[in-house]
Write a structure and sequence with these properties.
Molybdopterin biosynthesis moea protein, domain 2, 4 helices, 125 residues, three-stranded antiparallel β-sheet, mainly alpha
């Protein structure tokens, strides 16, 4: 694993947080700390935990197609599409169930009306 030796101040600037927050992060992650001859404490920070620095060209690294954020977004969009298809099919099923229930209610009402007629009207038609 590649590491980079940074002071608390440098780490805070790279992460965009206050130096005290960087200090707490180092404690939580238990990254190795080394005190130099100049008295400055340098932390061995894994490179993959740091955000990518921006190019001087102004290109945004999040615009890169191999960025994990883009792949995560693509996965989520695919899942949303699948969920929308499920919602559509369930709505169709619900509409069919409502139509079936209405048909049953109409049949029930017809049978009830027939049952409520007197016996001789039922025979005579």
């Amino acid at each position: 694993m590649d590491t980079l030796a940074l002071t608390y101040k440098e780490l805070a600037e790279r992460l965009g947080v206050k130096p005290e927050s960087a200090r707490k992060l180092v404690q939580r992650k238990r990254w190795h700390r080394v005190t130099g001859n100049d008295g400055a404490v340098r932390i061995q920070v894994p490179v993959d935990t740091l955000p990518c620095p921006r190019d001087s060209t102004g290109d945004n690294p999040s615009d890169m197609p191999n960025n994990p954020v883009h792949s995560q977004i693509a996965l989520l969009e695919a899942e949303i599409t699948g969920l929308r298809e499920i919602v559509q099919s369930e709505r169709r099923r619900a509409d069919e169930a409502i139509a079936f229930r209405n048909d049953l209610a109409a049949d029930r009402d017809a049978w009830r009306a027939m049952a409520q007629r007197s016996w001789w009207k039922r025979l005579a038609g």
